[in-house]
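Entry 14. Two folds queued back to back today. First construct below, sequence then structure tokens.
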Amino acid sequence: MTEEKILNTPKKRKAKIIPTSGRAYISAGMNNTIITITDPEGGMLFFGSSGRAGFKGSRRATPYAATKAAEQVGAEAYQAGIRELAVYLKGPGMGRISSIKALKSAGLNIVSISDMTPIPHNGCKPKNKRRM
């Protein structure tokens, strides 16, 4: 006679398959620089920001902080197996170019750079002229 035991064993997770190419979204705002590395479909793999790199306050907006954040994320992605990136920039911040250079210095091959900064075609309605 065989005894069946019911065990509360957790289900095994699938190992995350990381592709060799991906996308890097760099959001360079006036106060922070956020870098997100995704797979070619857009699923997030790695993330970093100037604040996460240890900078606080107005120092987060500097190009140096953006460089450090991009170096951390780039090294993490390189270790996982990503080798080439398509870079998508957004925002007017000072960390735009320095973060691209840092990704390049982390060993990643940059295939293309696209600027996706939203530009108003007509802008906001101006304030009414003051009446006295």
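Second construct, same run, same settings:
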Amino acid sequence: MEVLQPVKEPKASTDAKVKRVMIIVSKATLDNVYASFILANGARMEGIEAELFFTFFGLEAITKDKLKHLSVATVGNPAMHIPTMLGGLPGMEAFATSMMKKEMEKLDIPPVDEFLEILAASGVKMWACRLAMDMFHLKQEDLIEDLEGVLTVGDFYNRAHGEGTHLMFI
């Protein structure tokens, strides 16, 4: 068996370092939301600015009456390693969601509502997409209080200026 060696980090000048991450959250499946939150939280822990832009179905992650009911997508998710037909069976999505939540709880990963509070307290700026809000007939009061506000896509891109800013789409 081959032993893997640690990867050596490339030498980078201080100008080339990541200074800000702008994460676009487009889906509110539990796995996508947690991936976004963990990336934003990790950035803050490294002293990197982080912003989350919730658009389309990603808005459910910050909608007060929906954020506690996010689930794992079992149909069309190749990482589930189950046939699509099985993923569509009644109760399969609830079962997979329950299993994932149990595993996250073992790792002391907070539930979505608590994680949002942690992100806000750490300085992560969170924004809702104006177009998606209009499309889904949402008002700002439908969303969490820790939201910075509502932006158009153009406003979001204008915030992404500057060297060392990285955009991620999840």
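Quick look at the second one. Residues 30-45 form the longest helix (16 residues). The chain has a mean pLDDT of 88.
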